[in-house]
């Protein structure tokens, strides 16, 4: 049987080679196809060996900063040793072990006493009303207490500890490793806790119902458990950030981010996490400082609050990019971002078709009579939803190419959902941004992938017969001054340029308060009201001055330079370490990798993983020429998280390439070649 299989495999390889020769023959015999092939190859070679490669393939990793960090390692190790041996650390460690080894019947006794006290109090106070009838508001509390009481009974009858219960649950054993906890590798053999203590604590906590509802008490306890999990495993908190940022309100997301930052800080000073601070991190830090400066020197007192909020949210970049992350966690972050985007897209599609959509100020109804409204989902603005989706869709497309995060059939379906929701936003800037992002991603993937671009351009006239007229008319209206939104933006830009001229170095201050105070003095007739300049780069200059814009451009430059420098190193390396690139389920040994090497090329996996978020950011920058989204704090946070994901993938990717390839970059014109298409 083995011999037969080998023969079939060899036969398949022969067929593939013959098919490849046949396709090459067709291309060489056709003048048109040969012309396009030479055009693609020529463009690719220009990028590989030209000025672009010389500029974007010499990323400075910040060796001086690394040397200073190494010099401070001795001091940090002494501090870490003192903290590890401190009484406070020992107390919290023992407390955590106690909760893990505590008997389930203790937890059951606590819940039983709490629900009984809360339920009785709610029932008695309800019956003591003047009419003697339980008010409707108390029914929900009674139902909740009853549910908790029923849930406590199996716990009371259990003879296991919490750890034993977790190890005995097949569901938890599958979920916990995903979020960074592996019970099978831990050993907690003792049994702790007494039921009477749990009962007494439950009675005391239940007495809090006099001031607080039982639902809020349980939520507070669950929040405390969640906080402990994040402190133990900060990466779990980052994973949640990628998922909840576009869904929850700003303040809970900011609170979660602060918890993650504190958790990482505690890990770093204890020597449990390693800091990777490079040139791009330095410029993001400078930009964060200018953000705070823009709130302090503002022409309006209302700028300080938004500047502090932005300063808080920009910390999301550092917890992903400036702390050393394993490849497994980076992949989990990407999966979490895609899963969240699919959820947001499904919700947006549902809202659109059940009638919960917007029009009015976001749509020129006189010009687009066949568009009834626009999808907004959880972001409350169709343009914000579009900008969020074009950050995530390229990551999904990268997964579709590499087959790394999901099965290709799954990610194809997810991408269709996100793409359909993007269409329903009717955001022309987002459509244009995604097109540019997709073109760059294709170019990075393979030089002949550009055939798809040329084919699309040739086939575009046929779109009038296939594409719905509403989509075609909307897309073709880009730049049309007859559209009120286009003319509106142009006039705002003219007023914003006047503001920049008079406040070029310090800006006017951050936020809508400063803009609303200063803009009326520069507005054109008929455009007296505007929330912002509808241009990302212009708004940064208006709010924080030209220096902030230059620093932001350097952030972008070094981000892309670091990515393309990695591509260059990959192109000269024949010894890419495959371990860790694929999940344990698909790759257990290096020998098995060699068998799957044709499907899972290590260079392709590393390159496309970085390219996904890089192209997502590029799409946002394209849309940023016609809109401004940073006033939406959740989109602002996602921008820095996706940017950090690209930087994190780049830093992690260097670990798979031999060190000598890093030192040779940029020494000669030959070594400046950049292979961006495998």
Structure explained in plain terms:
Among the domains are: 131 residues, no CATH class; 340 residues, no CATH class. The protein has 678 residues and is mostly helical. It is globular and about 85 Å long.
* Low-confidence sequence ranges: 1-11, 582-598, 664-678
Indicate the mean pLDDT. 82
Q: Sheet bearing the most strands, described? A: none
What is the strand tally? 0
Count of helical regions: 32
Share in helix: 55-70%
- Outline type: globular
Q: Distance between the terminal alpha carbons, to the nearest Å? A: 35 Å
Instruction: Supply Rg.
Output: 29 Å
What structural category arises from helix and sheet content? Answer: mainly alpha
Strand content: under 5%
Q: Which keywords apply here?
A:
single chain, 678 residues, mainly alpha, 32 helices, 68% helix
Produce a short descriptive summary.
This protein is mainly α. Helices cover 68% and strands 0% of the residues.
Element layout with pairings:
Elements: H1 2-29, H2 31-49, H3 51-56, H4 63-71, H5 73-84, H6 87-101, H7 104-127, H8 136-157, H9 162-167, H10 170-175, H11 195-206, H12 214-232, H13 234-244, H14 250-269, H15 279-296, H16 304-313, H17 315-321, H18 327-353, H19 382-402, H20 408-425, H21 428-445, H22 450-459, H23 463-466, H24 469-476, H25 484-502, H26 512-518, H27 536-544, H28 546-571, H29 590-595, H30 602-623, H31 633-653, H32 660-663
